[in-house]
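Re: folding output
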Amino acid sequence: MQNISPEVSEVHWLLDMFQTVDVGLVVLTADYKIQVWNGFMENHSGLTPRQVRDRYLFDLFSEIDEDWLRRKCDPVILLKNRAFTIWEQRPFIFKFRNYRPITGVADYMYQNSTIFPITDVRGVVTHLCMIIYDVTDVATSRLELESMNGQLRQLSKTDFLTELNNRGTWEDALQTEFKRLKRSGHQGTLLMCDIDHFKRINDGYGHAAGDVVIRQVAQAVKKNLRETDVAGRYGGEEFAVLLVDTTADQALYFAERLRKTVEGLSMEFNQQLLKATVSVGIAEYTPDMLEHRQWIEAADKALYTSKADGRNRVTVAAK
């Protein structure tokens, strides 16, 4: 039996490791022609080393941003430094599909990479080596956690029943706008809205029916909002809307449209038809207001007038 020299055995071991290691290994010439392509790259690209050898990288993989990658690699060649890319900055270099069942939520493999120079005996950089790491598990876990945290932050600001801003979030927005108006002298109007005879709905049909009415009125409020307006559930059956850069006259149009929308709603609960109306109070910001609560009080007073005058109407506070 022929003996295998230690040198040959070591080369065989290294080649075997090179092919089976669970990272991508790519060696490029200085002009980006592929010289080495290991098993990881073959398995995920579907291209064999023979198919890619001496091919221009950017011809084979059009998804790679050539300008970006060259900016990463040029210092590696010139300064003989390593370069790194991380998935947070760019999800991947090679657009490989993700086949892991555990991380099936991702369509493509998230990748980190290390790029380092390969020099000849004279110390001249002749090739670049790219190591591609599959970090899909880490990336998807991080993204899911961030998404959950974002949802929790949103939930902490949102009224569960109406999906409008809760009172605290809405009032914070009002304080911010109040300070802005104090500085700028611009216009802004506050609208307070209350469902008429809401206690009768709760007493006659139950609190579940009352929740249906509150949700439907909230939808009517959202339907009439502009992107810059800020609406919230102020408490119980009362809603508040901050109309940015809006005069009282302009707000009156909004309020009447809202009042008519609610008046026209037909809400069904347990095969029974529910109807509702709203009363609205409007107060435009005035420079003599010292704090935002005075603004709320002015709109509340106008709302009370609407209630006292027969409900299902809009009242504008006197300046």
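--- second protein (sequence, then structure) ---
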Amino acid sequence: MRDISARELKGHNILAVERFQDSTRWMIEFAVRKPRTPYGSPGDEVRLFLTEDGYRQALDAQRSQQIKIKRYAHVVEGHILDFKPRKKRRHP
């Protein structure tokens, strides 16, 4: 299987206008799993730049197994920042 970044993705282009809008906070890349979703057909690989509300809707779609998010990142002023959750600190 090829890396998702090397594949042609549907949805937003990496330099899409949506990426640079003030309200954009997230970028996600995902696979569509079920038919009749607003995201595409099963097997489609999609990239979207989303607001907070749009991201919550995508998480709901993942919970209902309509999509499977493969990559996500914060977007700040058009810059894509890889999201890495903080590790919990261990105390000796």
